[in-house]
């Protein structure tokens, strides 16, 4: 194999890397422009986009609302990451890492900022007392899988998804490397789900809510168009779990919030009340 790139002594950003996300990538952090975030009337203010990481939070909020938790009412504002909205001063104030999703809880006098999708799920589960088992054994197993997902998904998204779907050219080495890892992770999930209905055990929880938007969407072929390439159908337990969760009305509601691509009946740029979702879903043929 020939090595076509010789790294310089000190890396500098002298050319764009190419590909779908090249224009937003820079090796520094912090705000790039001044703009405050809108604040709606609901207790929870979400600033997000319906990527898998974004879907985790909107599905969680819809689950809580379906459980009757009125305090989980939320305004969901669109952060268009292709346009650089994540670099506004207002967004950076609630997430210094400039990545969606970010939540601001305005239910008390001083708003509480919550960033990192796993931290948001945990915050909401603890605040409202749902979707995280209370006994130590099941809670610990649920947390094991939540943290597993947070550590594993970047290989699926930033590794496999990036090189298979977004990179400007198909490069064999990274596609092989991340396909291997993605299939290994699917096998981990498949074995866990062979004897357990859900990741934490017998109860649907934040571990499933975190994981479905990634591995569920991959095996159902709704991200990366890679189900055939990965032989997703062979992970029968993951497929059973993915299909079951896909049927939940809460998942069908949450997955369309802050989504600005796909069919007309699955696009809702901003959500301020349940009626906003009802109106979009009513267009489904
Ligand atoms: N570890 C973070 C990852 C969030 C993340 O990667 N968000 C992506 C979209 S899925 C993003 O905002 N990217 C914009 C950017 O990198 O500038 C989390 O779980 O919240």
TrEMBL record:
State the top-level EC class.
transferase
Gene3D superfamilies for this protein: 1.20.1050.10, Glutaredoxin
Looking at the record's lineage, which domain of life comes first?
Answer: Bacteria
EC number(s) reported in the record: 2.5.1.18
> Is Transferase given among the entry's keywords?
yes
UniProt keyword list = Transferase
Ranges for domain GST C-terminal come to 138-277
- The chain positions of domain GST N-terminal read 45-132
GO MF:
glutathione transferase activity
Q: SUPFAM superfamilies annotated for this entry?
A: GST C-terminal domain-like (SSF47616), Thioredoxin-like (SSF52833)
The record's listing under InterPro entries reads: Glutathione-S-Trfase_C-like, Glutathione-S-Trfase_C_sf, Glutathione_S-Trfase, Glutathione_S-Trfase_N, GST_C, Thioredoxin-like_sf
Give me the ranges of the annotated region Disordered: 1-20
Q: Cross-referenced CDD domains, in alphabetical order?
A: GST_C_YghU_like, GST_N_Ure2p_like
Q: Name one Pfam family in it.
A: GST_N
The residues forming a coiled coil are none
Family annotation (NCBIfam families): PRK11752.1
The entry sums up its family as follows:
Belongs to the GST superfamily.
Q: Know the name of this protein?
A: Glutathione S-transferase
Q: Which species does the entry assign this protein to?
A: Agarivorans albus MKT 106
């Amino acid at each position: 194999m020939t090595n076509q790139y010789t790294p310089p002594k000190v890396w500098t950003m002298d050319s764009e890397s190419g590909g779908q996300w090249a224009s937003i990538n820079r090796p520094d952090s912090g705000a790039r422009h001044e703009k405050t975030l809108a604040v709606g009337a609901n207790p929870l203010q979400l600033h997000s986009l319906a990527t898998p990481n974004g879907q985790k939070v909107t599905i969680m909020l819809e689950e809580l609302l379906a459980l009757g938790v009125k305090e989980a009412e939320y305004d969901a504002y669109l952060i268009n990451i292709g346009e650089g909205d994540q670099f506004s001063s207002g967004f950076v104030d609630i997430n210094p890492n400039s990545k969606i999703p970010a939540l601001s809880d305005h239910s008390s006098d001083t708003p509480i900022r919550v960033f990192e999708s796993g931290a948001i799920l945990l915050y909401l589960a603890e605040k409202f007392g749902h979707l995280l088992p209370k006994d130590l054994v099941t809670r610990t197993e649920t947390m094991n899988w939540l943290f597993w997902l947070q550590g594993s998904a970047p290989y699926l998204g930033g590794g496999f998804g990036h090189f298979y779907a977004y990179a400007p050219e198909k490069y064999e080495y990274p596609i092989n490397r991340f396909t291997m890892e993605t299939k290994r992770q699917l096998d981990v999930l498949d074995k866990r789900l062979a004897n357990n209905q859900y990741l934490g055990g017998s109860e649907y929880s934040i571990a499933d809510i975190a994981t479905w938007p990634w591995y569920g969407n991959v095996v159902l072929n709704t991200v990366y168009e890679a189900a055939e390439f990965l032989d997703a159908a062979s992970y029968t337990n993951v497929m059973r779990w993915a299909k079951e969760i896909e049927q939940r009305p809460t998942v069908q509601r949450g997955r369309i919030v802050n989504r600005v691509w796909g069919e007309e009946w699955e696009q809702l740029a901003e959500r301020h009340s349940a009626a906003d979702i009802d109106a979009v879903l009513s267009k489904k043929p």
